[in-house]
Amino acid sequence: MSTANRGVNIGPPRFKIAVHSIVWLAKSGSVLSSAMIANQVDSHATFMRRVMHALATAGIVESRGGREGGYILRRPADQITLGEIYIAVSTGFVEPEFDVNCGEAGEQLDVELEKILHEAEQRTIEYLCQYTIADVMNRVEFFVM
Asked: Which end of the chain offers a freer environment for a tag, N or C, measured as fewer CB atoms within 10 Å?
């Protein structure tokens, strides 16, 4: 089953993929290629490279080039929070926008809705920052170390 088809979908779909990827990197303790990670999380390697690029830009993973290249964690799993992963994959991606013309009332509604959604996202990030990758791994029987 694809990670995109499981449970609650809060935040960008790439958030779950990013968390799964980081868990696999933490579990492996070694360099994994985007193709290897994509295979583990049931995703496409090209999409995986975009997600990993965002994580590398945020300083969560390190990208290593060359024949034996791939990605490795820059910090231990107990020092990587879900909040910082969420922020990393929420910035830099351009989502398609739909232009809806609802007049002046619609514009005012959009302004207020954006304020509410921004506050909700901030609270989500604060909550996610309470958990590390190690915490998530400890909750999953398969990953108990």
From this structure: N
Could you give the C-alpha distances from 100 to 27, 56, 59, 104, 106, in angstroms and in order? Answer: 45, 35, 37, 12, 9
Do residues 71 and 51 lie in contact, with contact meaning Cβ atoms separated by under 8 Å? Answer: no
Residue count of the chain: 145
> By three-state DSSP, how is residue 6 classified?
coil
Q: How far apart (Å, rounded) are the C-alpha atoms in residues 34 and 118?
A: 32
Whole-model pTM: value is 0.77
Q: pLDDT by residue (tens digit) across 45-100?
A: 899 999 999 999 999 999 998 888 999 999 999 999 999 999 999 876 655 444 44
Q: Where are the alpha helices (DSSP H) in 42-94?
A: 45-57, 82-90
Supply the pLDDT for residue 92: 63
Q: What is the largest CA-CA distance in the chain?
A: 57
Question: Do residues 48 and 24 touch, judged by C-beta distance below 8 A?
Answer: no
CB 12 within 8 A of CB 96: no
Strand intervals (E) in the chain: 61-64, 70-73
